[in-house]
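Question (not urgent): is this output format expected?
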Amino acid sequence: MIYVIISEKQSVHLWLIKFKVMNILDPVSVIMTPDPITVDATDSLAVVSKIFSTHKIHHIPVTENGELVGIISKSDFLFFKRGFSDSEADKAMEEVRMNNYSAKEIMTKKLAKLEPEDKINVAIEVFKENLFHGIPVVEGKKIVGIVTTYDIIKRLAVDNEAYAGY
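Got this back:
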């Protein structure tokens, strides 16, 4: 159990929060981020840039007609932007590139995917064997969530049982 003390002006509240131990045989739906922010394949990279700068995320699923067709990682996006400095000419060139290239032109098309009922241990194995950190969760071809290495770390960070081994 974790105790959280919240102080509001002169009163102090003690909250008792009980977090369930992460069971790697639980479905990924337990730890995934549901209804992730997505972009359409035809959206400009300016839209992608705004999402990355506005939200604290590192993966944006790409859809076409409501179906998952790819994913853009922040690393992919920054690789595309590489080589530009802060000069006015470079800023103008970057603006042109951001407005003239679309999500489909830089997205990763060959995806690992999970279904909501797939087990967390399957996600861990996929992360361990590959060089990516986000896996879309789909029902059919429709994206319903995303599970990331951060989701697993976040869950372990609040898991008292995980600390027992230290």
